[in-house]
Design goal:
With 320 residues, the chain is mostly helical. It is 78% helix and 3% strand. The protein contains eleven helices and four strands. It has a two-stranded antiparallel sheet. Helix 3 runs antiparallel to helix 9, helix 3 packs antiparallel against helix 11 and helix 5 runs antiparallel to helix 9. The mean pLDDT is 84.
Length: 320
Amino acid sequence: MIQVLMLIAGLAMLVKGSDWLVQGASGLAKKYNVPNIVIGLTIVSFGTSMPEMLVSLLSSFRGSSDIALGNVLGSNTANVLLILGLSALIFPLTVQRKTTWVEIPVSLLAAVLLGVLAHFGFESTVDQKMIGRGDGIILLICFAGFMWYIFHLVKTGKDVAMELDGFVPMPLRKTVIFILVGVAALTWGGQLFVDNAIFLAKSWGVSEALIGLTIVAVGTSLPELFTSAIAAYKKQTDIAVGNVVGSNIFNILWILGLSATIKPLRFNTSTNSDIAAVIASSLLLFAVMFLGKKHTVGRWKGLLFVLLYIAYTWYLVQRG
């Protein structure tokens, strides 16, 4: 019981720590007149992906590659099917043409690239598949290309109308405190979350992969869930969709790229079905852009997404 409470405490620290870090970093950036679009596409995106990054890095260091991979793959599937599904049930989501034709395909290609590198990468052999340092560097190079694309949008003046809803300017001292406390909460919370997730997996007799794909994945996706659900409620649908798609790209290219570069990740072939789930959910998101009302995730599509996520979770539990 105490481990469950510690897991929840670690998760709460991850969620709140990322919020404090985003507030502090955004305050510091605004003090030096950094445009809202740059803050939103960099600091906020990094901030909402911070729980996944901390959990994957710490899991990798502790030799729990299944949790590191399961966390990212499970989060990406949950982001599309659960988070976008719930958000669409709150309010139909209109998707920009640029997101449909560029960002959703990029998130799909990132998942395909991960699968290719896991099987045919620099350190993979017939007996043991690995996502090695060379593979991590390739993912990071692709991530740098995506960041160049983002800043190109800023430079050409596209999508510059994006605002940070609810941003409140803060004094410099308070900004620094928010950043330091946020980093501390993320670090401690990440350690608590990973240690107790591993302990529970062993004590319950289930695989670390299952824990990573379910409890850890949904837990670390809470910042995206809150962000997208609130954005949908306020009818800011661009933020709701962009947050999820951008997070999926960050998770694979940045988080797994960084994790593998620091320490190679062992890849079990059973994880192929989880990569397939990420690819299938991305393909489904792209396909529904052209079903019914175009470039819109309506309520019936949202319900379909949620039901598919429930079915996927049931499959994971049966698989063990």
